[in-house]
Amino acid sequence: MVTKANKKAPKPTNLDELRELIARESERLTPRMRDAARHALEHPNDVALNSIASVAAAAGMAPSAFVRMAKALGFDGYSDLQRLFIAPLQDAVKPTFRERIRHYGGEQALDNPADPAEVLQAFSQANIVSLEHLADDAAALPLKQAIALIQSARMVYVVGLRRSYAVAAYLTYALNRVGQPAVQLNGLGGAIAEQAFGANEQDLLIAVSFPPYASDTLAVCEQVRAQGAKRLAITNAFLSPVAKDADLVLEVNDAKLLGFRSLTSALCLAQTLAMGLAFSKRTQRAKRAGSKGRGATPDLHDIDC
After folding, report:
1. Contact present, 265 and 236 (Cβ < 8 Å)
2. How is the beta sheet containing 230-235 ordered, strand by strand?
3. CATH code matching the domain that covers 140-289, chosen among 3.40.50.970, 1.10.580.10, 3.40.50.10490, 3.40.50.1970
4. What is the CA angle 54-57-59, rounded to 5?
5. Is there a common fold for 4-88 and 140-289?
6. 5 contacts: CB under 8 Å, gap ≥ 6
7. Which of 4, 95, 101, 151 could form a disulfide with 126 if both were Cys (CB 3.0 to 4.6 A apart)?
8. DSSP category for residue 178
9. Residue 13 pLDDT > 80, yes or no?
10. Separation CA 71–CA 2 (nearest Å)
């Protein structure tokens, strides 16, 4: 449970501060409080616009779990916490539009979803906002640690199913192109557990998953953890089930329109990891060769990533 000292700390004033507080205090919360916090962070607009009874019913939990979670984090109660979720929507366009594009920074109005040009314009703008947030958070992401974790692995296993499949496929391709052995766990023929069977303490699993989290991805995470492999999670929140017990977590958010989710930020992060690994390997080769000049290192222009 959260201590009295933690309760006296200033309560968050925005959702970013709330995410940081929940990440810090995760171990101090009860399992039900963590579930309530995770649901709130994954469904911010539902929390802002619906009653506690509706939110709790959607989460399959008792309303009291959300109340206890709010108080444990320093709020007077659920209504006090809810005001934090309402604030980002107060300056938004009133909900007279037919659909809304949700993204890391709030919501994007979409007046005519039947017009593909308008959808493209609105979705592009939402992706720009998501990328801007990713750029703002870049310094806080453990990118160097992630690259070191990848580079130290004998074999990198990459799993990403459903909408995350494209990110996993690209990352596997890019890692192999820069000289890091990698294999994608695609579950072909229902054999995903067998594909991950060889992962051990010398290996790394990179798991890419976003809500709704693929059950096979979660199962593989548990499997390789039992086999001793390290795990890097690329997901939307530190409290996501994919991040549980991971050695390292990279948090990334993309825009969403109904059931369609963008891959822009996630792919940008995957490219960063591959490029960072390529330059790290090049630097190490230069040091081993005892050269200080760029000309003695392999050219990366033909990597084709």
Report:
1. no
2. 182-185, 156-159, 204-208, 230-235, 248-251
3. 3.40.50.10490
4. 110
5. no
6. none
7. 101
8. T
9. yes
10. 9
- Asked if residues 271 and 118 have their Cβ atoms less than 8 Å apart, the reply is no
**Tokens linked to 200:** 């051990």
Reduced to 3 states (helix: H, G, I; strand: E, B; else coil), residue 107 is: strand
Residues, the chain: 305
Burial of residue 189, with CB atoms counted within 10 A of its CB: 0-12 exposed, 13-18 middle, 19 or more buried: exposed
Spelled out in words, what is the top-level CATH class assigned to the domain 4-88? Answer: mainly alpha
Query: Cβ(176)–Cβ(169) under 8 Å?
Result: no
Provide the pLDDT confidence category of residue 19 given band limits of 50, 70 and 90: confident
pLDDT tens, residue by residue, 170-223: 999 999 999 999 999 998 888 999 999 999 999 999 999 998 889 999 999 999
How many Cα atoms sit within 13 Å of 199 on the Cβ side? 31
H or E element that contains 233: strand 230-235
Angle between helices 52-59 and 63-72 (to 10 degrees): 110
Q: Where do the domains of the chain lie?
A: 4-88, 93-138, 140-289
CA 256 to chain centre: 14
C-alpha 201 chain-centroid distance: 24
b vs e for 28-45, b when ≥16 Cβ sit within 10 Å of the residue's Cβ?
ebeeebbbbbbbbbbbbb
Q: How far apart are CA 178 and CA 44, in angstroms?
A: 39
Say whether pTM exceeds 0.85. no
